[in-house]
Design goal:
four-stranded parallel sheet; mainly beta; single chain; globular; six-stranded parallel sheet
Length: 167
Protein backbone atom coordinates (compact mmCIF):
# COMPACT_ATOMS: atom_id res chain seq x y z
CA UNK A 1 0.00 0.00 0.00
CA UNK A 2 1.23 3.46 -0.90
CA UNK A 3 0.06 6.63 0.77
CA UNK A 4 0.65 9.92 -1.02
CA UNK A 5 0.10 13.31 0.55
CA UNK A 6 -0.56 16.27 -1.73
CA UNK A 7 -0.28 19.81 -0.45
CA UNK A 8 -2.72 21.40 -2.85
CA UNK A 9 -6.12 23.00 -2.66
CA UNK A 10 -9.11 21.27 -4.15
CA UNK A 11 -10.61 23.52 -6.82
CA UNK A 12 -14.04 23.18 -5.17
CA UNK A 13 -12.51 25.26 -2.34
CA UNK A 14 -11.37 28.02 -4.73
CA UNK A 15 -13.30 30.77 -2.92
CA UNK A 16 -11.40 29.88 0.28
CA UNK A 17 -8.01 29.49 -1.45
CA UNK A 18 -8.01 31.88 -4.45
CA UNK A 19 -4.24 32.46 -4.56
CA UNK A 20 -2.89 28.92 -4.85
CA UNK A 21 -0.53 27.92 -7.66
CA UNK A 22 -1.74 24.30 -7.72
CA UNK A 23 -5.24 22.83 -7.55
CA UNK A 24 -6.55 19.28 -7.69
CA UNK A 25 -9.72 18.08 -9.41
CA UNK A 26 -11.25 15.00 -7.81
CA UNK A 27 -14.85 14.91 -9.03
CA UNK A 28 -17.47 16.51 -11.28
CA UNK A 29 -17.94 19.30 -8.74
CA UNK A 30 -14.34 20.31 -9.46
CA UNK A 31 -15.12 20.87 -13.13
CA UNK A 32 -18.23 22.84 -12.13
CA UNK A 33 -16.12 25.02 -9.81
CA UNK A 34 -13.61 25.63 -12.61
CA UNK A 35 -16.41 26.61 -14.99
CA UNK A 36 -17.90 29.03 -12.47
CA UNK A 37 -14.55 30.73 -11.90
CA UNK A 38 -13.37 30.91 -15.53
CA UNK A 39 -16.77 31.92 -16.90
CA UNK A 40 -16.77 34.84 -14.45
CA UNK A 41 -13.31 36.03 -15.57
CA UNK A 42 -10.68 34.04 -13.62
CA UNK A 43 -8.38 32.67 -16.36
CA UNK A 44 -6.05 30.71 -14.05
CA UNK A 45 -3.02 31.83 -16.10
CA UNK A 46 0.09 30.35 -14.50
CA UNK A 47 -1.92 27.89 -12.39
CA UNK A 48 -1.68 24.09 -12.53
CA UNK A 49 -4.55 21.61 -12.21
CA UNK A 50 -4.15 17.87 -11.58
CA UNK A 51 -6.79 15.16 -11.87
CA UNK A 52 -6.33 12.60 -9.11
CA UNK A 53 -8.58 9.83 -10.44
CA UNK A 54 -11.25 8.91 -12.96
CA UNK A 55 -14.26 11.25 -12.89
CA UNK A 56 -17.78 10.14 -13.80
CA UNK A 57 -19.94 12.99 -15.11
CA UNK A 58 -22.98 10.72 -15.59
CA UNK A 59 -25.30 12.80 -13.42
CA UNK A 60 -24.12 16.20 -14.64
CA UNK A 61 -25.12 18.32 -17.61
CA UNK A 62 -21.76 20.05 -17.85
CA UNK A 63 -21.26 23.77 -18.42
CA UNK A 64 -18.01 24.14 -20.39
CA UNK A 65 -15.04 25.78 -18.66
CA UNK A 66 -14.45 29.09 -20.43
CA UNK A 67 -16.45 31.18 -22.87
CA UNK A 68 -15.31 32.59 -26.20
CA UNK A 69 -15.66 36.39 -26.12
CA UNK A 70 -13.67 37.60 -29.17
CA UNK A 71 -10.38 36.89 -30.95
CA UNK A 72 -8.74 39.70 -28.98
CA UNK A 73 -10.54 39.18 -25.66
CA UNK A 74 -9.54 36.07 -23.69
CA UNK A 75 -10.89 37.31 -20.35
CA UNK A 76 -13.18 34.30 -19.97
CA UNK A 77 -10.89 31.62 -21.41
CA UNK A 78 -8.95 29.00 -19.46
CA UNK A 79 -5.22 29.82 -19.60
CA UNK A 80 -3.72 27.41 -17.06
CA UNK A 81 -2.13 23.97 -17.29
CA UNK A 82 -4.28 20.87 -16.88
CA UNK A 83 -2.72 17.49 -16.14
CA UNK A 84 -5.16 14.62 -16.51
CA UNK A 85 -2.54 12.09 -15.41
CA UNK A 86 -4.13 9.67 -17.92
CA UNK A 87 -7.23 9.37 -15.78
CA UNK A 88 -10.53 9.33 -17.65
CA UNK A 89 -13.57 11.58 -17.74
CA UNK A 90 -16.56 9.29 -18.18
CA UNK A 91 -19.99 10.25 -19.55
CA UNK A 92 -19.27 13.88 -20.44
CA UNK A 93 -22.57 15.58 -21.32
CA UNK A 94 -22.62 19.04 -22.91
CA UNK A 95 -25.80 20.13 -24.64
CA UNK A 96 -26.41 23.81 -25.36
CA UNK A 97 -27.00 24.78 -28.98
CA UNK A 98 -26.57 28.48 -28.11
CA UNK A 99 -22.88 27.98 -27.25
CA UNK A 100 -20.06 29.19 -29.47
CA UNK A 101 -17.45 26.81 -28.09
CA UNK A 102 -18.11 23.65 -26.16
CA UNK A 103 -16.49 20.53 -24.76
CA UNK A 104 -15.13 19.86 -21.30
CA UNK A 105 -13.63 23.33 -21.83
CA UNK A 106 -15.41 25.95 -23.91
CA UNK A 107 -12.58 28.35 -24.70
CA UNK A 108 -8.85 28.19 -23.94
CA UNK A 109 -6.04 30.64 -24.56
CA UNK A 110 -2.36 29.66 -24.27
CA UNK A 111 -3.40 26.70 -22.11
CA UNK A 112 -1.53 23.42 -21.74
CA UNK A 113 -3.18 19.99 -21.54
CA UNK A 114 -1.40 16.73 -20.80
CA UNK A 115 -2.83 13.23 -20.40
CA UNK A 116 -6.49 14.31 -20.43
CA UNK A 117 -8.71 11.43 -21.55
CA UNK A 118 -12.37 11.98 -22.45
CA UNK A 119 -13.55 8.39 -22.43
CA UNK A 120 -17.14 8.70 -23.68
CA UNK A 121 -20.18 10.96 -23.69
CA UNK A 122 -21.50 13.63 -26.04
CA UNK A 123 -20.96 17.27 -26.87
CA UNK A 124 -23.68 19.15 -28.78
CA UNK A 125 -23.22 22.90 -29.22
CA UNK A 126 -24.06 25.48 -31.86
CA UNK A 127 -20.53 26.16 -33.11
CA UNK A 128 -16.94 25.16 -32.31
CA UNK A 129 -17.47 21.71 -30.82
CA UNK A 130 -14.70 19.51 -29.46
CA UNK A 131 -14.22 16.83 -26.83
CA UNK A 132 -11.63 18.68 -24.78
CA UNK A 133 -12.33 22.23 -25.94
CA UNK A 134 -14.46 24.05 -28.45
CA UNK A 135 -11.95 26.85 -29.05
CA UNK A 136 -8.18 26.70 -28.54
CA UNK A 137 -5.92 29.63 -29.35
CA UNK A 138 -2.20 29.08 -28.80
CA UNK A 139 -2.80 25.90 -26.79
CA UNK A 140 -0.74 22.72 -26.48
CA UNK A 141 -2.24 19.22 -26.21
CA UNK A 142 -0.01 16.27 -25.35
CA UNK A 143 -1.18 12.68 -24.90
CA UNK A 144 -4.86 13.69 -24.89
CA UNK A 145 -7.70 11.62 -26.33
CA UNK A 146 -11.41 11.98 -26.94
CA UNK A 147 -14.03 9.25 -27.14
CA UNK A 148 -17.15 11.45 -26.89
CA UNK A 149 -19.42 12.05 -29.88
CA UNK A 150 -19.20 15.63 -31.13
CA UNK A 151 -21.92 17.62 -32.88
CA UNK A 152 -22.22 21.21 -34.08
CA UNK A 153 -25.82 22.17 -34.85
CA UNK A 154 -25.52 25.57 -36.53
CA UNK A 155 -21.87 26.44 -36.98
CA UNK A 156 -19.42 26.10 -39.78
CA UNK A 157 -16.34 27.23 -37.86
CA UNK A 158 -15.07 23.95 -36.51
CA UNK A 159 -15.66 20.54 -35.09
CA UNK A 160 -13.05 18.08 -33.89
CA UNK A 161 -12.24 15.35 -31.44
CA UNK A 162 -9.76 17.30 -29.32
CA UNK A 163 -10.62 20.89 -30.31
CA UNK A 164 -13.35 22.30 -32.51
CA UNK A 165 -11.06 25.16 -33.58
CA UNK A 166 -7.33 25.28 -32.90
CA UNK A 167 -5.10 28.09 -34.04
Amino acid sequence: SLTVTIDAANIVDYSTFPNEELYVVTDAAGFTAMATAVNSGVTFAGKDFYMLGDINMEYELHTPIGQFVANDDWSKSFSGSFYGNNFRVFNLKVKDTALNGGGLFGSCYQAYFNGLQIYNGSVTVGNRAGGITGYADGCTFEYCTNGASIKSTTGSDGIGGIAGVAR
